[in-house]
Amino acid sequence: MSLARVHAVMAAGVDRPQLLEQWMADSAQLRALGVQPEGFDLQALAKFAGLGVKVRHNPLRPMFPLGFRLMSVAAIEIDLFSAYALQRSREGRAFAVDMAQRARDLVAFVGGWHDPDIRSHALLWDALRYELAVAQLREPQPATIAAPVASRAPRIRGDIALQELQSDPRVLADVLHASTPDLDDVPLQPQAFCFWHPPESSENDADNIGDTSVIAVDALGQHLLSRIDGRRSAAALARELGGGRDAARAVAIGLDSLAAIGIVALPQRRARAACA
Amino acid sequence: MKYFRSDPARTRLGLAYGPSALAYLDAHPDALDYIEIPFEQLRHTPEAGALQAHIPLVLHCASVSVAGTVAPPVDTMRAIADVAARLRTPWVGEHLAFVSAEPLGGETDADIDPTTLTYTVCPQLSEASVARVADNFAAARRQLGDTPLLLENSPQYFEIPGSTMPMTDFIAAVFERCDAGLLLDLSHFLITCLNTGADPERELDRLPLSRVVEVHISGLSVQSGIAWDDHAVPAPPQVFELLRRVLRDVRPQALTVEYNWSAAFPQPILHRHLQRVRELLEAA
After folding, report:
1. How does the average pLDDT of chain A come out, rounded?
2. B23 has a pLDDT exceeding 80
3. Residue A57 has pLDDT above 60, yes or no
4. Which of A109, A139, A169 is the last residue of a domain?
5. What is the pLDDT of residues B233-250, one digit of tens each?
6. Residues of B in contact with A135 (CB under 8 A)
7. Is residue A48 located within the same domain as residue A135?
8. Same domain, A111 and A196
9. How many CB pairs under 8 A join A and B?
């Protein structure tokens, strides 16, 4: 087979993996290009396209250290990035030049690609969402006109992101940092987490990864953190839970717990009550 | 500025440019002889060249497409020559591979220009390819002036259509036709052996080892049934065994450890592997 034709077909397939997909479905298209389909390992070529895309995502490694370590340990990098290369090629979309956008694109792709029944995929989906949330919390927040803060309303100290994950990123980090990581050592069960970037990171007592804390929260804590906006009072939060003495007591206990961690600032009167 | 100086009695030890190499250099400013830096890096971020105030730079390249059927743009070759002269690099290391190919043909605009990739591809291993490399190499040498051009063996991941010879024969044939130094990437070599079922020891004996000027070491990973180049993981023990075997026959001028894909590459492992390389060099 002609050197120039072979190189042309290989390069086009790597550059536009949707062509590989077409050639797999209809080998006559390859013959029409002047090459023998039998000589081409199109599956391997598709994987090679994935290697190139993987390398192009190396700049994201500092943002996703757990995600990339997990992909390597689970040996799923090539499969993932070859599938990603194919998807982008089908859509005719180049990879974003801006790294923050490239990161969001990758996480969005993995959201659709991963099989939640495969442990490594489920862990990867968790790890990437966690690390993306942490990266976004570290980004300088755009200046906005501050919403009016009610004096009797609890408020969030710093910035938070809430995620429901199947695994605890702290446990995953411990496992991945072992010399021979065993992903079976990471329990899988639905949990809610709050990733908290405090205004002064030295103040918090929670488990700290870098300057962002990971806090496991129960359903009430998750609900409260999603509703606290500096305007709703504790009474308003209780009314959203149906009102009544039980709801008020639950909200009070929940707020006090969050205040004890430091993630929520309570209005003066509630804070005094919490200290009593 | 600092410049690379060859010493026939001593192999210079360097790291491939990347965040882990810069961190290592900060922590051990006297432990390295040079940093190998890609031309493409300097082209996009020329300020990276400021590193030469602290340590010599050796130029690596992935733009010449020496095994390709499409010549690189003239301005690219001119830029490589300019950078090489400015750095006073002892040589330019280039992959025995291609990055550009003729368009598939057709009527759409996308098919008019050559296809240019961001990653080098193992060429067809054939007499026609050898002849093409010889022509391209001669042209590149003319364009690079006094700077020698080393050719680096590619990793072979799968059968290349139309190939008529194994990788080792291809390399030997190229070096018969080209007055080139060999940049022997031992990880690429092992990857090729793993993927083609060749015996590494036997194939190593058939390489033109007397032409080795520089050696590369990096990691590899096996995924989807194929061994892949991977500069984010440490080299496996087989690579060090191959190095020991190579050093029985040759004393390369330079040895570059390429752990440059991940800023999180563990510095203790990097340090240990450099130590191990030093020990092998001293024992040889």
Report:
1. 91
2. yes
3. yes
4. A139
5. 999 999 999 999 999 999
6. none
7. yes
8. no
9. 123
User: How many domains is chain B partitioned into structurally?
Assistant: 1
Q: Tell me the average pLDDT of chain B.
A: 96
Mutation choice for B interface testing from A10, A29, A66 by most B CBs within 10 A: A10
Identity of the residue in B102, B157, B261 whose CB atom sits nearest the CB atom of A58: B261
Confidence of residue B36 (pLDDT cuts 50, 70, 90): very high
Structurally, how many domains does chain A consist of?
Answer: 2
pLDDT band at A267 (very low <50, low <70, confident <90, very high): confident
Q: How confident is the model at residue A154, as a pLDDT?
A: 95
Q: What is the DSSP string of chain B?
A: ------BTTB-EEEEESSHHHHHHHHH-TTS-SEEEEEHHHHHH-GGGGGGGGTS-EEEEES-S-TTSSSPPPHHHHHHHHHHHHHHT-S-EEEESSEEEE----SSSGGGTSPEEEEEEEPPP-SHHHHHHHHHHHHHHHHHHTTS-EEEEPPP--SPPTT--S-HHHHHHHHHHH---EEEEEHHHHHHHHHHHT--HHHHHHHS-GGGEEEEEE-EEEEETTEEEEETTSPPPHHHHHHHHHHHHH---SEEEE---S-TT--HHHHHHHHHHHHHHHHH-
In a domain, B216, yes or no: yes
The domain boundary, picked from A99, A115, A139, lies at A139
**pTM attached to this predicted model:** 0.92
- Judging contacts by C-beta atoms under 8 Å, the chain A residues touching residue B226 are 44, 47, 78
What pLDDT score was predicted for residue B246?
98
